[in-house]
């Protein structure tokens, strides 16, 4: 009994370290923010294709992301898919499955950090690993100067406490790309900065999401996960879960099955969700009205 009580009273290292607890809470807040339809559960059954070292594998999008990141030879994974295909939701969902409940053998806390690169702060200094460290510290520390300093300290000196997994979203929406006459050097600078950031230690990893990585040299050296069109079964599941009444659900499902253009549109989760919203708001007024 004494041994059992001792085990109950032992506090895991990650809970004793209040700095880690505060950073984890901040990362969780970034990860679980919902922006309208992004919060819907349609991406759970999304499918993808993983290309790595000349081999291809298809399957569950979330499982493929996990498989690619668990590869000890891959510090960075690329996630590619068209607008509305579910990249952001996939990153958030995958991150939620890895939030600190999971432990690695070395005892470090697994900490996914969601980073929206469309809000990457402009700077006059060269883009490098320190630029990204400071941006991550600003996100996690917010208005807390002390916490920002602790994040920088953990990223630079105390990496053994945390297994960082940076989820870099909207890479193709970096503000610097908007005004660039030649985007390729800008893309390469940022990819090299992320590479320098994660390759400084074995427990730093990243996923970079964009619509397209065509032309980027990184495609040849990092695993690439393509978001595939939403399968028919997942389309129907999305329509059922949307909350339409039974008649509207049957009507919309039949309409999609019988219309080639709508079938193609429904392969995109965002567009299918917007179609469901339209039917929910005004659809019945259109198809039930008298001729």
Question: What does this protein look like?
Answer:
By secondary structure, this protein is of the alpha/beta class. The protein has two domains: 9-227, Rossmann fold; 232-285. It is built from 13 helices and seven strands. The protein has helices spanning 2-9, 13-16, 18-31, 61-69, 87-98, 129-141, 145-156, 175-178, 183-198, 232-242, 246-257, 260-265, 269-287; strands at residues 47-52, 55-60, 76-80, 109-116, 162-169, 204-210, 224-227. The protein has a seven-stranded mixed beta sheet, with helices on both faces. β1 and β2 form a beta hairpin. α4 (61-69) packs across α5. The protein is globular. Mean pLDDT is 82; it is low at 1-12, 34-44 and 102-107.
Relevant CATH superfamily of the largest domain: P-loop containing nucleotide triphosphate hydrolases
- The main sheet orders its strands as 2-1-7-3-6-5-4
Number of strands: 7
| CATH class category name of the largest domain | Alpha Beta
What is the H/E order?
Answer: HHHEEHEHEHHEHHEEHHHH
The level of helicity is 40-55%
- Enter the CATH topology name of the largest domain: Rossmann fold
User: Do you know the CATH architecture of the largest domain?
Assistant: 3-Layer(aba) Sandwich
End-to-end distance: 79 Å
Q: What would you call the structural class?
A: alpha/beta
Mean pLDDT: 82
Count structural domains: 2
What would you call the shape? Answer: globular
Percent of sequence in beta strands: 15-25%
Low-confidence segments, given as residue ranges, are 1-12, 34-44, 102-107
